[in-house]
């Protein structure tokens, strides 16, 4: 019995040295705990490096505890109160969490351990950066979404496009070519030897001479008087 009392007093002295003005003894009737033992209240706020202590704290809670007769071999009596801005459901959730941790730490002084766990929970739940995690979860899929532009290319759509492209290209080439090139059948190109053996050079030469004779005949015109005189003189002379 004396060992429990001594260990409890030593823990209280250590907590008062660490927490100073943040811990105070309160009347058991104000604790919300069904006990006649000494009760203590510790004020907790979200832990933040950028937090200005002089500023108004929107969220704050109080951890109230009392030692049992055989503490720390028994769990302490703990109550969580909202000083400002804590939801009742969250208080219940935190109380269950601390009760579980108290059971896991039996046999050793645990008030500061429970206090540290409660402050960490409060910071994660109500700290300045507490709401930053949720937007990140919704923004992550947005980085992977690729907004499509136009229609997706498939084999069928590509082949259809290729046929249209080749048809348009052929039409453009046809517009640039003379009509004779489009209507005249293409002849197979012959080698020099095949050209002379085929006799086309002779035919082409004869055709050229004939064309020249026809052009000369077309250039010479005789009137009727000249033809009559020429015929008379020729008849009389022979």
From TrEMBL:
Disordered: region residues: 202-221
Top-level division of the source organism's lineage: Eukaryota
InterPro entries the record matches: GIR2-like (IPR040213), RWD_dom (IPR006575), UBQ-conjugating_enzyme/RWD (IPR016135)
Stored SUPFAM superfamilies: UBC-like
Gene3D superfamilies: Ubiquitin Conjugating Enzyme
Matching SMART domains: RWD (SM00591)
Start-end of Acidic residues biased regions: 210-221
Pfam hit, one: RWD
UniProt domain RWD: residue ranges: 10-125
Protein name from the UniProt record: RWD domain-containing protein
Source organism of the structure: Aegilops tauschii subsp. strangulata
